[in-house]
Specification:
Structural class of chain A: alpha/beta
Largest interface: A-B, 35 and 35 residues
Strand order of the largest sheet of chain A: 1-4-5-8-9-10-11
Oligomer: homodimer
Radius of gyration of chain A: 19 Å
Strand content of chain A: 5-15%
Helix content of chain A: 40-55%
Number of helices of chain A: 16
Number of strands of chain A: 11
Order of helices and strands of chain A: HHHHEHEEHHHEHHHEHEEEHEHEHEH
Chain lengths: 356, 356
């Protein structure tokens, strides 16, 4: 068992005292870094980068060499599970992810397997093992998966969507089929995250990127219900240490009270949600992660510092906050601006963590 | 003064008793109707259709010939004001609206005029007059405008945007300039809506399509503040009759309490917001308009009927609800499905309007 040199990310998720607010950034291993673009080019394609554990490890570690992040996050794609289910993931320039064999019929759903992660997703599990080893206990490693609902949207639409017409059509017209599919996905996601935990992930995050496209009732029934099912199946203690869990629904600000009851240790907040109000609404049940607007990173460093301070001020005193963006960093951000964000969190946040 | 044959839309907005819930539909004059597509083709372009009062009148009236809608809405574009300010609106196939001269500098903002609607927007005012005349008092006519913030996003970005990087950049780095621009827009929007009211609009709606892209604090300062300013400048009594006002912020579900204090008679709700909870949150201050997911109109008529009933059930008894979608109808919806929605509202809603 490796003890962590820096465990404030884990402690903050568990609401244990820390001396400053931890910070990491969604998509911190990504296109805004020239060294990432170089490895991406060498790999030949995004998918080749994801499926090669050595390269995935390399790009996972890159941002930690530049910035004082308090956590690493596995570099991978959110659509690895549907790919392992046989849907044939591929990427087209400018159009994002696509599936060769989208799910449309009862027969399609019936034949969906629950993939064994050590077989069909072995490249991810291997990447986790390798990253964990290379981190040498410096900071914790976050594993992740797309949520059942979010995976289902891509699987039924065959890729990205604006209106979500096919997946909502299935949900409205054949809710029973939709539930069968989501149940298989919940089992698959739980097995996938458990394999990441077994391989060394020290915290896990569920990305529900498209839960916010549902109405309140359908969100509870078709998205949050399966996030709960995933949570219930997770093995979140390893060698006596807790593996904290984070649930992030983009556009989920209306439903924080329900999300806080889903069993996760922390909720990710998008930037629209006021973190002061969010903290009051979840009533101490969960930690909060977020939530600066990714677009604020285009601004001058002085402005970025102001925006960071404003979020730290709104969260206020005490543990239970992990600083992050409200969504992934945009690909054309100047890395110096990320430094301004991280430095401000480190320099300014200690005032909110003084013992009385 | 014409008295309306059907005024339940106006009454519901003012929370006066009605015998059924009124219904209309955002973008009810639009591409899902074959007769619209025919006129659009004759016109040669979308802009020519908007700027020709006879054609705009014709397409405004088309949906009323098919469906029992309780209101007509002016057919126009939300970007008429920036065009009248000299920004040079044009449309490209598949990419949406663009401006030849986007606003980027202090000098650009300084030279923005507040257009006189009877001059630069005469074609809209003429269309309102013509539609009002042709409606012959059957149902009320709704006038509308984009909100100052939403207009500003297009003006600074030069068109549609995913990240809103330029307009947020201006807002973060030069908030004073942004306020000058929004103040001019608020004056322009108020003058424009007042001209529509003077020409015969019997209710007006402010479309804040992109307010939901802001964080809570910035929403209040840069979007809602100017919606309030517009409202304060509106002349909402004509010949002793109230002209009700509706404020719609897509993605604004988190901020309903603040929106309810902005002086509008009603709030438009997107489909994510639960209308039962929304009614409780606004505490009787405003009527509510909405909020079926536009995607539900792809479903079978029986399912559409269920979804409509569920929304009527959630709003519950009493006046103060105008049935609508939570956003505009999508262009490939079968008109028969719209009929299923409208018929269900008419047939099912009277149970919620029985006097005790």
């Amino acid at each position: 068992m490796t003890s962590l040199k820096n465990d404030i990310f884990i402690k903050a998720l568990l609401k244990q005292p820390v001396d400053r607010t931890p910070v990491w950034m969604m998509r911190q291993a990504g296109r805004y870094l020239p060294e990432y673009r170089q490895v991406r080019e060498q790999a030949g394609s995004f998918l080749k980068l994801c499926t090669n554990p050595e390269l995935a490890c390399e790009v996972t570690l890159q941002p930690l060499r530049r910035f004082d992040f308090d956590a690493a996050i596995l570099f991978s794609d959110i659509l690895t599970i549907p790919d392992a289910m046989g849907l044939g993931l591929y990427f087209t320039e400018g159009e994002g992810p696509k599936f060769k064999y989208p799910v449309r019929t009862a027969a399609d759903i019936d034949k969906l397997p629950v993939p064994d992660p050590e077989v069909g997703l072995r490249y991810v599990v291997d990447a986790v093992r390798l990253i964990r080893k290379n981190l040498q206990g410096s900071v914790p490693l976050i594993g992740f998966s797309g949520s059942p609902w979010t995976l289902a949207t891509y699987m039924v639409e065959g890729g990205s969507s604006k209106s979500f017409q096919n997946v909502k059509g299935l949900m409205y017209e054949q809710p029973g089929l939709m539930h069968i599919m989501l149940d298989k996905l919940a089992q698959s996601v739980a097995a996938y995250l458990n394999a990441q935990i077994a391989a060394g992930a020290q915290a896990v995050m569920l990305f529900d990127t498209w839960g916010g496209m549902l109405n309140s009732e359908d969100y509870l029934e078709f998205s949050l219900h399966y996030a709960k099912q995933v949570r219930a199946l997770l093995k979140t203690e390893v060698d006596g240490l807790r593996v904290p869990t984070i649930l992030f629904t983009k556009g989920g600000g209306l439903w924080l009270e329900s999300m806080a009851d889903a069993g996760y240790d922390a909720l990710g907040l998008d930037w629209q949600t006021d973190i002061r109000q969010a903290r009051a609404r979840v009533g101490g049940k969960v930690a909060l992660q977020g939530n600066m607007d990714p677009v604020a990173l285009y601004a001058k460093p002085e402005i970025i510092a102001e925006k960071v301070k404003s979020i730290l001020d709104k969260y206020g005193a005490g543990s239970g906050h992990v600083f992050n963006l409200g969504h992934g960093i945009l690909p054309d951000i100047n890395p110096e601006h990320v430094k301004a964000m991280v430095d401000t969190v480190r320099q300014y946040s200690p005032i909110y963590h003084q013992s009385i």
